[in-house]
Write a structure and sequence with these properties.
By secondary structure, this protein is of the alpha+beta class. The protein has one domain. It is about 55% helix and about 15% strand. It is built from three helices and five strands. The chain has helices at about 5-20, 25-40, 70-100, and strands at about 40-45, 45-50, 55, 60, 65-70. The strands form two sheets. A three-stranded antiparallel beta sheet has the order 1-4-5, with helices on one face. It has a two-stranded antiparallel sheet with strand order 2-3. The protein is elongated and about 60 Å long.
Length: about 110
């Protein structure tokens, strides 16, 4: 993935995080569901399967960040936490690319 693609992905992730920031309850769930719908993500709800078996977990995939949780609130919380980590990782990668291209040492805060 090139730097422009990474930066674009980070912008998408941060946009989704901004859309739910400061919201609670149904407002937060609605805002997040809208982000998933508007950005071709997937938001799978528990449903009854064949032979009376049910899928009992929520699965969310948005901007390449995927989580599975037992409740809808937890799924959105987990997605937000994973998305923040992913945005940070992308920032570190972009910083490393920039430093490498400019012949500079890696930044200590982005070291493994």
């Amino acid at each position: 993935m090139d730097a422009d693609t990474l930066a674009f992905r980070k912008d998408l992730i941060c946009g989704a995080l901004d859309a739910i920031d400061g919201k609670e309850g149904l407002d937060r769930l609605d805002a997040f569901a809208n982000q998933v719908l508007e950005n071709d993500g997937s938001y799978l709800f528990p449903r009854e399967g064949g032979y009376g078996l049910a899928d009992v977990a929520y699965e969310i995939n948005l901007h390449g960040v995927t989580v599975i949780a037992w409740s809808e609130d937890d799924a959105v919380d987990q997605w937000a936490a994973a998305a923040k980590r992913e945005a940070h990782n992308i920032t570190c990668t972009l910083d490393s690319l920039d430093r490498t291209l400019n012949g500079m040492q890696s930044s200590p805060e982005h070291s493994p």
